[in-house]
Amino acid sequence: MDLRDSLFWCPYDTLGPLTNGSLVVEDGGALVLPPWCLTFVDEVETQLRNMPNPNFVFGYPFSAPIRQPGEPRPAFVAIPYRPEFDAIKAAIQEAALAANFQCEITGDLANPGTIMDQVWQGIRGADVVVADITGHNPNVMYELGLAAALGKEAIIVTQEQQLPFDLRHWRTIKYNLDRIDHLKMHLEASFSAVSARYPHEGPEPRF
């Protein structure tokens, strides 16, 4: 389909900035998108015809500086906020550090502001999302859904034997509470297998 034949909709208050920034131009009295912008929109639409993958153009903040060699890679952890998961949270953090990842954990967010805005920013900035879906906690499942919408790689950990059908394509670690050492070992391997974002982070950069 030729995007020039499509109807583009945006709120009225968006039109001014788009026009002022030359993202929308006037042609014969009509407002149209210039060819370079059509090409960009077409690329985004192509990516969104299926679920986004780690190359999704909007998967990361555009303004984030390039990570320097040796700098820890960001990870986001979605886990129930109950004491019985403290040992699991600690194992995830220790495995992450061993693989040069630094975790942001939903329940530990202390900055003032809207919690879901912070969650969204944390997931969008992460190279990988780790989610403990034991008990199918609604908050965890919601955050995992946000990760899927952004094309994030995810590591799922769970005490349950059966996974929901739509989660089976993700890297999964099944664990027992009496074998936390076993969980940590598998987590380290999973963190190490996360695709490189930049050439200096591994042999298989995403871009």
Q: What structural keywords apply?
A:
single chain; 207 residues; alpha/beta; Rossmann fold; 5-stranded parallel sheet; two-stranded antiparallel sheet; 6 helices; 7 strands; 35% helix; elongated; disordered N terminus
Number of domains: 2
For the termini, the CA-CA separation is 26 Å
Shape: elongated
Mean pLDDT: 84
**SSE order, as H and E?**
HEEHEHEHEHEEH
| CATH fold topology of the largest domain | Rossmann fold
Summarize the structure.
Helices cover 35% and strands 15% of the residues. The protein is of the alpha/beta class and 207 residues long.
How does this structure look, described?
- This protein has helices at residues 12-20, 35-48, 86-98, 115-125, 138-149, 180-192, and strands at 25-27, 30-32, 73-78, 101-105, 128-132, 153-158, 171-174.
- The chain is α/β, with parallel strands linked by helices and 207 residues long.
- The chain has 2 domains: 3-48, no CATH class; 73-201, 3-Layer(aba) Sandwich (Rossmann fold), CATH 3.40.50.450.
- The strands form 2 sheets. The chain has a 5-stranded parallel beta sheet with strand order 4-3-5-6-7, with helices on both faces.
- Helix 3 (86-98) links the parallel strand 3 and strand 4.
- The chain is elongated, with a radius of gyration of 20 Å.
Task: Please describe the topology of this protein.
Layout: H1 12-20, E1 25-27, E2 30-32, H2 35-48, E3 73-78, H3 86-98, E4 101-105, H4 115-125, E5 128-132, H5 138-149, E6 153-158, E7 171-174, H6 180-192
Parallel strand pairs: 3-4, 3-5, 5-6, 6-7
Antiparallel strand pairs: 1-2
Helix pairs in contact: 3-6
